[in-house]
Amino acid sequence: MSSEEEVKKSIQKDLGGMIVPLVSGIFIEGNKVLLLKRRPESKYAPNAWQFPEGKMKFGETPIETLKREVDEELNASFSKPELFDVSTGMIEVKGVKMHIIRIAYTASLNGKNLKLSEENTEYKWVDLEDARKMDLVMGALEMIEKIILNKD
Length: 152
Fold this sequence. Notes:
By secondary structure, the chain is an alpha+beta fold. The protein has one domain: Alpha-Beta Complex (Nucleoside Triphosphate Pyrophosphohydrolase). It has helices spanning 3-15, 62-74, 128-131, 140-151, and strands spanning 18-29, 32-38, 49-50, 53-55, 77-93, 96-110, 120-127. Strands 1, 2, 3, 4, 5, 6 and 7 form a seven-stranded mixed beta sheet that branches. It starts with a helix and ends with a helix.
């Protein structure tokens, strides 16, 4: 076993699974929030709705991750990002335990002509109350509840 494999195995053993930093963009217009529908072929939560988001790559800052993901998923950009929330949750995908650390930002989406990548099948601006009833990925409902609380 190489020293790299030994380090990975040791870290995995110490942590009990993988730690996955995830960065989410919360784009709100009036009382509506932007959500994306995952593909039916997705490994995790097929057909569920999520915020524009993605895993942070090694060496990226959360804002760099969000810029990359919004560009990749929506062919768009944003301005005025503000840290909204940091939360955690656990999922298991194909036997792999993952501890998700979600870093969420609110921001203003630049432009209205969104073009989806192949990762998602559709996007919608959804009323916050209606979003509560949708099939959402892990952690998204809690985020919507926090958005509603902050609007009051």
